Amino acid sequence: MGFLVGLTGVGGGSLMTPILLIFFNVKAAVAVGTDLLYASVTKSVGIFAHGKLGNIEWRIVKLLALGSIPASIVTILFLKTIDIESSTAISAIKFWLGVALIITSAAVLFRNTLMRLSSKGHWMPERFVPHVTVILGVVLGALVTLTSVGAGALGVTALIMLYPKEKITTIVGSDIAHAVPLTLIAGLGHASLGTIDYTLLGTLLIGSIPGIYLGSHMSSKVAEHWVRIALAAILIFVGLKLVLH
User: Fold this and answer.
1) CA-to-CA distance for 182 and 70, rounded, in angstroms?
2) Would you tell me which of 124, 148, 175, 241 could form a disulfide with 155, CB atoms 3.0–4.6 Å apart?
């Protein structure tokens, strides 16, 4: 999994959660919860890297967190009120995971196009941007807590549209900085629900370190265009499989 993340640059949730569900038959809630804690650990490394390079715009991070953290807590409280292992809850998690993957595939495919369009000007009056950023945080907070997908590809794509004047490195760095507290809060929330497999978490972390290293080095040898197309195709296939299950 680390290899795929390093190769594609797409957050592990988009790939890991469905793989755990489909190929390893991990329970839906456990796959989501375990992946959230995994993401909080792996992405925390990114904060130090991007922070040293000055790639984090903390104003954006704070606006996103203002919406996402409360939304994540509310989502966890909602999950506490239902039987998360019931067939209805499992079906709902799989459905929304599938929807998130399909939207993510579109974000992966059209990110470069959106970047070109954004470079020509703002998509909305600048005075509305802070408010919309908070709303984006609310959407990401609920979606990430429920499915573990969204903090990466979706967050970056939306921020590119909202902040066209910012460098892509700043957008990515700010998105990672926001994802760490969000995935940590959501992961701890899932821990309180008992939906964390700590043995699986440890195994994933051990394997991801060399995997990300290898994938990152391979990425420079593989055409980004084809990687994006292949990744989007996988996400669409898996997303449809989960939505139509």
Assistant:
1) 10
2) 175
Helices then strands, each counted (H, E), the chain: 10, 0
User: Given the structure tokens 């909602």, which residue do they identify?
Assistant: 78
What is the DSSP-derived secondary structure letter of residue 24?
S
State the first-to-last Cα distance of the chain, in angstroms, to the nearest integer. Answer: 24
| Amino acid letter, residue 43 | K
Question: How distant, in Å, are the alpha carbons of 3, 4, 45, 144 from that of 208?
Answer: 7, 9, 12, 20
Spatial distance between the Cα atoms of 93 and 226, rounded to a whole number of angstroms? 30
By the 8 A CB rule, do 17 and 31 touch?
A: yes
Q: Which helix (H) or strand (E) holds 88?
A: helix 87-118
- Reported pTM: 0.85
- pLDDT score of 139: 95
The DSSP output letter for 86 is S
Q: State percent of the chain over pLDDT 90.
A: 42
Those residues whose C-beta lies under 8 Å from the C-beta of residue 146, and which sit 6 or more positions away, are: 32, 75, 79, 93, 96, 97
Q: What percentage of the chain carries pLDDT values higher than 70?
A: 84
